[in-house]
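Progress against Task 2.4 (sequence-to-structure conversion) is shown through the following example record, which the project officer requested during the mid-term review.
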Amino acid sequence: MLIISVITLVAFLGRLAFHLLRTAWRDADNRQPLPQGFIDDASRMNATQVAEVWTVPAGRDAAERQLARLLRRARQEDL
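Structure tokens generated for the chain above:
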């Protein structure tokens, strides 16, 4: 009975391993580069046209100062 259980387990896990390896082997990155002036989220389904992209500082205070500057600029330029 133990031998049958081990053979069944090995067959089941072998099939899973084969499926994962085959999927990894066939996986290809078919993403197209975004046109200039567009940005996308992780799903790659929401390309949105943007004027600028900023890197958010790591520190909370620096990020708040940057946001305040950007909002002030947007108000001044009617954005």
